[in-house]
Amino acid sequence: MVLNFSIIKEKQKQKDELPTTRSKLYPKKSVYDRKRRSPAFYWTCILATCLAIYLLCKATLGDSSFDPLSAINNYNSYGSYPLSRSSNKNYKNAKELEDVEYYDYDFRSIDEMSFHNFDQGEQHYLITQYGGDVVTSKDKERYIQEMENLLSSSVDKYDLSQFEGTANGAENREHLLYLTPLRDAEHVLPMMFKHLMNLTYPHELIDIAFLVSDCSEGDKTLDTLITFARHLQDGTLVDIFKDMDASIAKSEKKNENPNKHYLKFMDQNYIKMADASFAGPHHNEYNKPFRSVQIFQKDFGQIIGQGFSDRHAVKVQGIRRKLMGRARNWLTANALKPYHSWVYWRDADVELCPGSVIQDLMSKNYDVIVPNVWRPLPEFLNKEQPYDLNSWMESGEALELAKTLDEDDVIVEGYAEYPTWRVHLAYLRDPNGDPNQTLDIDGVGGVSILAKAKLFRHGVHFPAFTFENHAETEAFGKMAKKMGYSVGGLPNYMLWHIYEPSDDDLKDMAAIERGEYNQN
């Protein structure tokens, strides 16, 4: 009688619909319980899976061997240079991440024993229709404690006074948020990632966030970015770039890359310096993963082309910069965490930059600070030119000009249509000057901006509207200054932007080759 009652009780318990704690990774068991499966069932599944994989690989790859680089499907950097499938290299695995900063704040570890039962889908029958498991007072006490731990783990406390930002961020183990907006940027991603790895600020203190937006149809920026980011974090990106560079060099020996034809008109000393910038030797943590990488995709309706002539036409600057302001604010709002002390904005198309740029800018202890940014030019255009003219000191003439404009008009710096007579940081460069010299400025350019995170928490942002007849980064500088924060620039600390031939430059190059060029 007791035996029969136990059987009935067990069957009824299985039918009970009672509250349980189950992980999504461990759903309720189906009627096809694994206990009913024989070993033959598992062997059949394994053999069938292996056969399917073999047939799929044979159909896809033919007789060629599998290459880990196939994840980067025919990626090309400057034209069409598919990665070779002939090699079958075993890329080294990333070293064990021992730095505590990889696991602090939102990545902190939890007491696995406290949550083990819940993660495995264990059931707690406190009350059932026909009795239930015997729950002792000790069991109930443990259950209540585990539930309290589970719930309290979702509550965090931050003292924001600890994340104000100091001049010695690396020594003080201050977390930094690295932000980069991307649009039709597939061709510069290898260079961008090499600069990332070259950063000497501790990688375990850097959270990276990318925003991919408004790319052209057929552009592969997002897919390539995801692939490179994964290899960056597993420590294999260096080896992949070596293979890619070798493949590109081999291909260019046979056929000139038309996208690089302009290089014959450039200062060859600069070309050699750019080529050598990533040749090594690298710093010890060059290949070290970063604390985290986030990739966002969101469009903002930007339809202005990405060509040099399109982007820099004066008539589109106001509209373009307001949309860029929206994108920057969106990325900041979604990526900034309470424990970030610094925010570093960096464009993807910087060609030359010191690996110590973050510490160098941080050491000046400005609330907002920018370097000087130039770009190389063809030799027939005097070899070089100031690039970022959005970093400047305010002038009386500009303030008077603003009074004559409508409220929504945007002053575009560096264009003849807006004679501001401001002092531009770019024109204060002394090739032999002190790179640590600092100046107080008002507007800032967006190529490379280091700012204390507290500014964004206090409301400073990149206006997507007209703020004192400016928008985006220039308005960001003016807003920060108006709210009492320090804004500075380094006239002799240099970053070099890539050269993008304009339509007129390409015409002049063609004329030179035909012997028809008239410099006057």
Automatic annotation (TrEMBL):
<dbReference type="GO" id="GO:0000009">
    <property type="term" value="F:alpha-1,6-mannosyltransferase activity"/>
</dbReference>
<dbReference type="GO" id="GO:0006487">
    <property type="term" value="P:protein N-linked glycosylation"/>
</dbReference>
<keyword id="KW-0472">Membrane</keyword>
<keyword id="KW-1133">Transmembrane helix</keyword>
<dbReference type="InterPro" id="IPR052086">
    <property type="entry name" value="Mannan_Polymerase_Subunit"/>
</dbReference>
<dbReference type="GO" id="GO:0000136">
    <property type="term" value="C:mannan polymerase complex"/>
</dbReference>
<dbReference type="GO" id="GO:0000032">
    <property type="term" value="P:cell wall mannoprotein biosynthetic process"/>
</dbReference>
<keyword id="KW-0812">Transmembrane</keyword>
<protein>
    <recommendedName>
        <fullName>Vanadate resistance protein</fullName>
    </recommendedName>
</protein>
<dbReference type="InterPro" id="IPR029044">
    <property type="entry name" value="Nucleotide-diphossugar_trans"/>
</dbReference>
<dbReference type="Pfam" id="PF03452">
    <property type="entry name" value="Anp1"/>
</dbReference>
<feature type="transmembrane region" description="Helical">
    <location>
        <begin position="40"/>
        <end position="56"/>
    </location>
</feature>
<comment type="similarity">
    <text>Belongs to the ANP1/MMN9/VAN1 family.</text>
</comment>
